[in-house]
Amino acid sequence: MRIVVIGSGFGGLAAAIRLRQQGHDVTIVEKLDKPGGRAYVFEQDGFTFDAGPTIITAPWLIRELFERGGKRTEDYVDLVRIDPFYNIRFDDGSVFRYTGNRAELIEEIKRFESSDVPGYLRFAEATEAIFAAGMALIDTPFERMTDMLRVLPDLVRLRADISVASFVNRHIRDPRLRQVFSFHPLLVGGNPFQSTSIYALIHTLEQQWGVWFAMGGTGALVRALVKLFTESGGTLRLGCEVEEIIVDATTRRSTGVRLADGESLPADAVVCNGDVAQSYMQLVPAAVRPKNSNRRYERMRYSMSLFVIYFGTNRRYDDVAHHEILMGPRYEGLLDDVFTRKSLAKDFSLYLHRPTATDASLAPPGCDSFYVLSPVPHLGGETDWGIAAKPYRDAIMSYLEERYLPNLSQHIVTERVIDPRYFRDSLNSYLGSAFSVEPILTQSAWFRPHNRSEDIANLYFAGAGTHPGAGIPGVLNSGKIVADLIGGG
Fold first, then answer.
1. pLDDT tens across 265-287, in order?
2. Alpha carbons 408 and 269: distance in angstroms, whole number
3. Which of 211, 260, 315, 421 has the highest Cβ tally under 10 A?
4. CB of 367 within 8 A of CB of 327?
């Protein structure tokens, strides 16, 4: 079959690679001038900045793509383990070294609150059960209500109705340790106080398989997957924005896509790796999608957006780890501002990424490459980023200079800032959400936008907004689901 894949994010690449391996004629069309989607790469002044995901887990999902094609992952990309996974720094000056070594992790817990060790062990055991059940669902499509009913007993048994934070708080008492073991939903766009406890499986995922980094940055992984795809005979077209998914109103089947320059690409099936809400509302005629109406997507809840500062320094900060989580003075209150009130708070919690801790090639000699990320409300709130961006940037950089990066302002030699408008305008994400549909129980599995359209039989969706959700493992599995639904041909 001739298949057009819209978008070259990890979900689109995974689907395209598998479809080529099945024998289909596959073309990827990408709006931007480089592949990767959210995993775009900024290069300026000798520095390399990964624009999107930087935390790689479930490495077997990556290796599987190469092995299915008879290739060795090592010939395309070098994946290395990160240790510690994260330094988690608190407002009181304490630092938790989050590692995959169980003995070392328990010693860290003892430093904070020794009485929480038994509770942590119960928590870890419980997450192993969640992992076993949850990972069995992550590459399974949910197309019918009966698919949901089939797994309902497991969801009830595992208490999927409570949040990750509530689940953690049942086992752990120290307020800082509660943050250490509950922040992970933020990595996939979820509020720990609202995301289903199924996402606690991330703890077991990291503990058993580690946290990884692609030498050369996440962009190196994108380039490796693109090379795998094109070597297999696939076609990648950059700078090609899709204006419409063409649908025959009589048959309710897509016949291809129309590009912004007027060119039409015929197809027997279309795989959309674009933001699911924006794609339905902007690319598919309303008359042929009664189930996926504008009203449906306007009523959904969407993940937060991000404010990110990419910057390079002419000195190294070798006491800063590869991944630093900088917790602010508030936890639940701040997240309530971001997700519920949708108001830009004066305080913040930050993710500080220093890839040159692992790979010095991402900056000139003697320099460091950074980005600092702050979760912020999506564009459904009232923040005017044209006014707010500069003072918010200044507040974050002053905070970093005062607390973690001495004399930072004197050493910055290059900088770039993105805010929710980037996600809306460059990545075509509805409301500027960074992770699409929010991962709450009532928007998971069958309740999440389906991988195969209910309205158009040969239209498929891969990416953060569809099942199983955001994060590199999630979107890679969405590509696998789509390829399995289409089948060989």
1. 999 999 999 999 999 999 999 99
2. 51
3. 211
4. no
